[in-house]
Structure formats: C-alpha cells, structure tokens
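pasting for ref
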Amino acid sequence: MGETSSELSRALSNTEASLGLEVGGGCRGTMAEVRVLVINTGGTIGMVPHESEGLIPEANKLARSLKKIPILHDAVYANKINLGDDTLVLPSSNQNKRIIYTILELSPLLDSSNMTPAEWDKIARQLEINYEMYDGFVILHGTDTMAYTASALSFMCENLGKTIILTGSQVPIYELRNDGRANLLGALLIAGQFVIPEVCLYFYNKLYRGNRVTKVDAESFNAFSSPNLPPLANAEVDITINWETVWRANTTKKFEIHTNMNSNVGLLRIFPGITAAAVRAFLQSPMEGIVLETYGSGNAPNNRPDLLAELKKATDRQVVILNCTQCLRGTVSVVYATGKTLMDAGVIPGADMTPEAALAKLSYVLSKPGLSLVEKRKMLSENLRGEMTVVPIGTKITLKDSKFIQEIAKYLFISCKEELEAVRDALTPPLACVAAKNGDLEALKALQSMGGNLSSGDYDGRTPLHIACCEGNLDIVTHLLQSGATVYAKDHLGATPLLNAIKFRHHRVICLLRMTGAHLSSQELVNVGTELCSLAYHGDVEGLKAWHLAGVDLYQSGYDGNTPSEVAKAAGQNKVMEFFKQLAC
C-alpha cells in the first residue's frame, strides 16, 4: 500500500508525539466520554398529578428535575465542562466511560395511548438528524404502547449500527417510590457503554429486543415480557450482555430511516362463533393487510366454509393476511389440518412474532414502494430484524464439532455446554484479531461457524475490525462488515475502526467504512485541526486525503489559528497546495 507498516508506524508516532497523544487516538489515563441523546416523548415517567385530569406530562421539567438526583447527574463534573441547560452527565462508571446525555423533548408530550404512526415518524426523523452526533439513544415513552413503538422503530431504522433503547416507568420519576430512576439509569448505562445495534426495550433490569416484547402487567414494575426470546442483557450486580442473541445488520449500507408506514392495517382476533359478516366487514377497503390472531399453533375452524371463503376472497383481491398465535408463547405451524386450511386460503404463517411486531412489520412491508405482491409476501416470511425465529435448514456446526475446542476442554477438564461456551468466548477475541491481522479469512469463518462473536473486543477493547482497518485488508473488512461487525465500536482509548484506517492511510478501507455509515466521534475530532496543520507542514498529502475521505473539514484551523492550506503555503509544500486546489474545483 505504498509504505511499509514500520514506516507508517514511525510517521504516525512522530505526528502523535507532536500532539502529545498516544497512537490509536485519545490520551492515556483519561476517561472516555460518550454522548447519548434522550428523546422524551412523554409517558408516565415524566408525568405530574393534575387536580382535574389526573397524571399528565409536563413540558420543560424533566432536565431540571434530573439535575437534582445525584445518581443521574454529577454536578461537580458538570461544572468543569461546558454543558447546555438540557445536558447532564452521569457519575463515572466501572467501564471507565463518562456518559454525557442531552434531553430532547418532542412537542407535545404525549400519554402513550395517544401515540400514532405520525409520532413514530417524528421519533425516527430525530434519530436520523442526530445519528452521527451521538453514540447511543434512549427514548422515553409510555408503557401502554411502548411495544408497538419499539416494533415499528425496529423496522423503520434500516441498517442500524447504534444502540436505541426505549424505556419508561409505571410510576412517575418524581414520586418517592418509583421505577423510573432505575429504568432510565439502566438504559443510559447500556446505551453509553455497549454497541448493541438494535432497537431495544429496557425495563426492570432487563434489556429486550424491541420487536419481541409485549406488555403483560399493568400494576407490576416487571411490566414487560419477551416470551419467545431471552433478554439481550441482564442488569443485576453486573450488566451481562447475551452477545449470541444480539441481532446485527449484515450489510455495508448506511443507516437510514423509512417513514410513512402503511396505516391501512389491523388486528383481527378469531374467537368461537365469530361471524363471516364481521370478518367481511373488517376486510373491506381500504384495508390492505391484517394480522389474524388465531388459536394455539395458528389454527382456525376448518368446518366454517363461510369464514374461510371470506379470507380467500380477501387474499384474492390482494389483502395480505399474516397469521399469529393468540398464545403468549409459541409459534405458528401447520401440524394441524386447521392450520393448513388457512395456508390454502393464502394466509402467511407469522412464526412466533408478537401481534405488535406482526402489525408493525405488515405496515412496514406494505409501505415499501416498487415491490410486487409476491415480493412483499416473501418479505413477510423472512426474518428482517430478529422479530421471528426461522428454523435453519441443515445442521449448524456446534462447539463440540471443533477439535481445537475439544482439546482445550480435555486439558481443562471441561465437559458441560456452558463451560465450553465460556472457553469459546474467551478465545474468540484474540484469535479473531490475529486472523484479521494476518488476513486469514478462513480462520475468521471457522471461528464464526463455532458461534464466535466477531464483534467482540480483546483485552484493550480492539475488535477484529479495528485490526483489519489498521492493516488495510479490504477483503477482511468487507467480510467483517457483512457479518455484522459494527463500525461504531470503540477501543479503551475511544478510537473507532475509522480512525485506525485514517492513521494508516488506507483510503479504500475508509471509503468502505464511510459507505457503511462510519463517522468520527466528537472525542476523536479533538485537536484534529492541529493534526491537519502538522500533516500539511510535512507535506503528507496521503494523510490529508485520508482525513478528507473520512468526511473531515480540511479548512479548520489549528491551535495557532492558521488553516492547513495556510501552513502548507508558508512551508512551501507545493504538493499539498496542489491537493487543496483540486479540492476547490
């Protein structure tokens, strides 16, 4: 790639030494700062009692009130830095990260019973506007329709690479005994400390996949359940992430939002004695799709030709019908004749989706432009965001199929599945990083086939993607991204894979990362003007080009107020001046 690795290292070291920094970005011994945006939509968590109306949301109150709660705001640290009125900072965590969070209130604040797809659009647009400015997002929301919003946003947020967590409370946060403080704190800690690229829901010490939850209790603090998928994380004494369960977008496309969900959809629950007339009325235009909630494993009466005829007429005129079970736990199957009868009528099996997820998925798929009915029906049968369990075809390689793991297990006298998984999880990060450094794609695939998490970091927080970006191995970077590796991972010094690619001038890797949505964090951009001036002074066109490809403004000034072009002109660096002329064209 032009220069040897040692030459690049020396050049990098000289540049970093002049700036007083360590290679990799950030200062040794400093605590990394992460930014989280809290979008307050309303809900019980921020409500106050009103004499005639009961509990109602109150605007412009939450940030002021949270500043008085020490576990949610470190006033001493806040006084040392310049924070806005709506920005707070958590006390330091054992992850050596300082979480700074800003509260953005939507107007008007709503009881979640008043939530509509229009509010989903407003939330999604705020996520889009602020996506590159924050490391994670928390959405405060009422509990009654939180599962619907979480499901809808999971589909609306396409190619998601950052953590989005919905939370709220059963009791207002201002009351003496409440669940709001713990829920907000837990959501902030997870959104700020971990990259879980999903729309999640955090409640009562558990983090769930947003499109897998349903509200099951109106009076308990433990209000939500994920009946067909275990939690993504448990926040007990420690926060434990179930990385094997985390869903990742296996794509190299940038984050974008999909709005204008189709509203001509609904839920129809089958019950004993339901009339054909009621079904016919429900399926009339403008209805374009329904979630049919059936008995048990997806069954409906097959001795009711009048009922089945109405369903068949609807599917024939291109109304899409998605079959979900009324049971809290379980999946739709065709074991019984009563279930197969629905498939013969054109009804699509919905596997183990919750009704909330099925409705949101139907609304999302039907609003996709340019797709034929066949393509839309196919999408509804596919697992788009981890919302349904798809039984894999063929046999998956397990830990016990790995001779390498077996030999280690024998040496350590390990036999049970849990201990084998612990060995795998301990070995995967260093082995994957070595494979990435050596460009060994087959080794990475082998680790992946054993269930290894290719997004996990080594002792220093560096992931295989960090290493591959340092080495400039485009094939390895591409495979990792297509396997769900996140471009937003940070090592212990706060450096992302993109910063690593910039430091080592790997232009093609930078372009691929940017195409996937990578961007530099605010911490990585500290003193960047001074570094650009240093590169200009030394005539390092390749270094300047790397920063330019990463989306950085090359015309910002350094510590002395001079821009890189002015420094290059004063130093007589003609190649750099020519480069700036080309940029101006």
